[in-house]
Specification:
By secondary structure, the chain is α+β, with helices and mostly antiparallel strands. The protein is built from 20 helices and 17 strands. Helices cover 38% and strands 21% of the residues. Helix 5 crosses helix 14.
Length: 646
């Protein structure tokens, strides 16, 4: 293996990164008043224990073997109920595109929006799951950090051409191709994300940040194996001798690395005398030294951060969590329930008070005393049950008070999925109002997180959408030629321009001469529709989106949706009110009211109304049978002024 001899400049750059990371680790391991004099790691550990209902053993708490020892799952249930009400579907976005001259481009904005939406559903991506996990991490840990990037990895690909399942013999073709080439979103553990200043809340305003990750060799090589200095990277056991320790800065990272893993340090800086910096150092080896890649003049860190709720000091970088907010009531509730369980147990298995004269008769093993055993005593008056207090109504009232405090901070039993005293719209509305404050705050925070994510995804697409695939192809004549492949963005199950539901497809080509003629695209779209898959195809050049700024706005209603139960309950109350207070209007418009009622329950009203409006015909027949005259309606005519021109 070639000896790694970094230059003095490279050594200085690596040393600078490690000095910065050292200061950031000190900030990470500092106790903060916002965490109640705990460190971030201790704060996160307490959150996880409460969420997972962790219970210390009886010995550590001084409990006896018969005493109850459990942790109620109230915090977890409240968390699930809260997330179910907010984090169910990704938000809808709207986008506008402007150039430096102030001219807007509706078409470019639509193309970019389609690309962004398509990037979240292509490949193995699941935006609904990402939305749920974002909400879960945010509420459970108080803070969620997302890394948005474009992964492009090239490597060996083995394709099985023939396989015999009986003998196990197979034929394999091995080629070198692009394995991964797509936008990706990675969840960064909060304790692995380091910041320069703990009292700057926004990621993009931090002067410097770092992401420190500990991975095995395969994962590190998969992502960084193509870089020229990767061949010099070694683990801690491979580095021996004083010279290697100094060359690879082993004293800086060895204490943090375990099990022969690799410490990957990604360091980002916006401000400084040398300008913006993006460096990657793995076990003391400088892998990458570049300016920030994201953005042109206005550089961005490729990270989005969301919090569940701010502390009293809103500038604090990390956020408060739901388990920490519920901590006081949760501990009291847990202590009461454990105590009540002990009291119930004692009331069932009541101890006995035995006089000294009867002591010998009761010195028996428990397994010899059962329901059929007769015990003869000298004085039965000296054998009485020990008075044991059972659970009282006052104690139950105290438990309900504690539970009410937890509901004020989160959600009540109706929103948690438990049935209430009824199923009226009023009950469900009141349940929503009780939790509106915390839901509204969580909704704002989740909206801000996704707004950051969409902005970063837009930058990543602008950086990579023009990177066309180049592939060597062998033709039928045996001659090898270079083929330029389209980069394609597909967005399925959306409304097309003609109102149909189908797939939008954006294809990026190298230049205007590569564009397909419009009639050829029409043929492809027609063919797709004949096959039962409506499609709308658009081709753009690799520089089409350049030199434009894209402004993104979140459509709030796309993220927060009313529950189906609330919609149906409100419809029932509405119908009862109309029928009771305005019966004439209700009878006159019953067709329309029926449509609204059926649609609220997810049913198709036309199945019952029919093309001719059988419901209206039925009402006319009933009126005639009751002797009520019907108004004659003139046939519908079209005014001359409304006739279409030929």
């Amino acid at each position: 293996m070639e000896t790694y001899t970094p230059t003095a400049e490279e050594q200085e750059k690596v040393g600078y990164v490690y000095s910065e990371v050292k200061d950031m680790f000190e900030a990470l391991n500092t106790s903060y008043r916002e965490f109640n004099d705990r460190t971030l790691v201790q704060f996160l550990d307490d959150n996880q224990k409460r969420l997972n209902a962790y219970v210390p053993d009886r010995e550590s708490q001084g409990k006896q073997a018969w005493q109850a020892n459990f942790f109620s799952k109230t915090t977890r249930n409240k968390t699930k109920a809260l997330i179910a009400g907010i984090a169910s579907n990704p938000p809808e976005i709207s986008m506008t595109a402007w150039n430096e001259r102030g001219n807007a481009s509706v078409l470019r904005a639509e193309v970019m929006k389609t690309m962004v939406d398509a990037s979240y559903v292509q490949g193995d991506n699941n935006p609904q799951l990402n939305m749920y996990l974002d909400g879960w991490n945010c509420s459970c840990n108080g803070t969620v950090v997302k890394y948005d990037t474009h992964l492009k990895v090239k490597g060996k690909v083995k394709v099985v051409k023939d396989y015999d399942p009986i003998t196990g013999e197979l034929t394999v073709d091995e080629t070198e191709d692009v394995i991964v080439d797509e936008c990706a979103e990675i969840d960064v553990p909060v304790q692995s994300f380091l910041v320069r200043d703990a009292y700057i809340s926004e990621v993009q305003k931090q002067p410097a940040i770092a992401w420190v990750e500990y991975v095995d060799k395969d994962k590190a090589e998969f992502e960084w194996g193509g870089f020229k200095n990767w061949k010099h990277v070694k683990n801690s056991k491979e580095l021996v001798g004083e010279e290697n320790i100094q060359t690879f800065f082993k004293q800086e990272w060895d204490s943090r690395v375990k099990d022969e893993k690799y410490e990957v340090v990604r360091y980002y800086r916006k401000y400084g005398k040398d300008g913006d910096i993006y460096r990657v150092v793995i076990n003391g080896v400088l892998i990458l030294d570049a300016p920030l890649l994201w953005g042109k003049k206005n550089k961005k860190y490729p990270f989005a951060k969301g919090i569940f709720e701010p502390f009293s000091n809103a500038s604090f970088f990390w956020g408060n969590s739901l388990p920490n907010i519920l901590m006081g009531e949760q501990d009291v509730e847990n202590a009461l329930i454990n105590s009540f369980t002990d009291e119930a147990y004692r009331s069932v298995t009541t101890p006995m008070l035995i006089g000294a004269v009867n002591k010998d008769y009761f010195d028996l093993e428990d397994d010899n005393v059962d329901g059929d055993t007769r015990i003869y005593v000298e004085d039965v008056t000296q054998v009485v049950p020990m008075p044991v207090k059972g659970i009282t109504q006052g104690e139950i009232a105290m438990l309900n008070i504690v539970k009410g405090g937890m509901e004020d901070d989160s959600t009540d039993k109706v929103q948690g999925g438990a049935s209430g005293s009824g199923s009226t719209a009023r009950e469900i509305v009141i349940a929503n109002e009780r939790a509106e404050q915390i839901k509204g705050l969580f909704f704002i925070m989740m909206t801000d997180l996704w707004l950051q994510k969409y902005r970063l995804r837009t930058i990543n697409i602008l950086m990579n959408y023009s990177d066309l695939h180049i592939k060597n192809v062998v033709g039928e004549d045996g001659q090898e030629s270079v083929q330029e492949l389209f980069r394609v963005f597909r967005l399925p199950s959306v409304e097309l321009s003609d109102g149909k539901i189908g797939t939008k497809q954006i294809e990026v080509v190298g230049g205007k001469e590569k564009l397909t003629r419009p009639y050829a695209l029409d043929i492809r779209e027609t063919q797709a529709e004949l096959e039962g898959q409506p499609m709308e195809i658009m081709q753009v050049t690799s520089d089409y989106l350049d030199d434009y700024d894209y402004i993104i706005r979140i459509e709030p209603e796309g993220m927060y949706q009313k529950s189906k139960a609330l919609k149906m309950a409100m419809m029932e109350d509405k119908m009862k009110g109309y029928a009771s207070f305005f019966p004439q209007i209700f009878m006159a418009g019953q067709n329309e009211f029926f449509k609204m009622y059926a649609e609220a329950y997810g049913d198709d009203p036309q199945k019952y109304l029919g093309k001719g409006g059988q419901m209206g015909a039925m009402q006319q027949l009933m009126d005639q049978m009751q002797g009520q005259p019907q108004e004659q309606q003139a046939p519908e005519t079209v005014p001359m002024g409304k006739l279409p021109s030929i």
